[in-house]
Amino acid sequence: MPKKAIFLLSFLYTISLSAQNKEDLLGSWTEIIGQHHISEKWSIPTVALLQHYEMFDKFQFIMLRSGVTYAFSKDFSASVGYDYVYSEAFSEDSFTIQHRVWEEATLKTPFLSPYIAHRFRLESTWKRQEPEYDLSHRVRYRLKFDRPLYKSLYFTAFNEVFINLKEPYFNQNRFHFGLGYSLHQDLKIEIGYLKNHFRRAHYDRIRVGMVFKTRFLEQKER
C-alpha cells in the first residue's frame, strides 16, 4: 500500500480513538454515486447516501437522489432532480422526512490537474416533522479538486457551503479530503475524512464512496 494511503488511514484511526461524546463520535458516511449516460448529451445521476452517528452503527439518515443532466459541453452541464431524505434523532424517538427539488449547474475550469469543478445548486425542501410541515430554500456552492498521485491513486478534496435564503442565513459547511483509486475508467472507490459544520453542532465522518458510470447508448450501438 502506498505510504500516503497508510498515513491517511492512520490519521483517521487516531480521530476515532479520541471520540467521547455525541458530536465527537466518529461516524460513517457511505455514498454510491452513479452517472448513467443515455445519449451523448443526456444522462441520469443517481446517489444513495447512508450516514451513521457511529462507524456503521446508530443510524442517522438515508438519502436517495435522482434527476436528469444535460451536458452543454465537456466543461459545463446542468441538472434538475429530486431527493428523498429520512433521518432520525440521536437520542430521541423521532424522525424527519424531507422532499427536495433541486436545480444545479456544474462548471470545470483549468487548474493544475487538469481542472477544478464548481457546482452551484438551488434546493427547495419540504420538511415533515409531525405535527409540523415546513418549506425552505437554500443555495449551495461546492469547490472540488482531484489530483493524480501515483498510477491509479489520486487525492480528492472539496468544500461546500450551504446558505439559507432567509435568516439564519448560514445552514452548514462540509469539508472533505481523502484518497481515491481508479479500478476502471468508469469505476472508482474513495475514502476520506469529512467535517460537517452546522450552526450549533459539528460532526466528524469517515466517508467511503463508490463512483461509477454506465453507458447505455454505447452498449446499444455495439
TrEMBL record:
Signal peptide start and end residues: 1-19
InterPro entries: DUF2490
Keyword Signal in annotation: yes
Keywords for this protein: Signal
Name of the protein: DUF2490 domain-containing protein
Higher taxonomy: Bacteria, Pseudomonadati, Bacteroidota, Flavobacteriia, Flavobacteriales
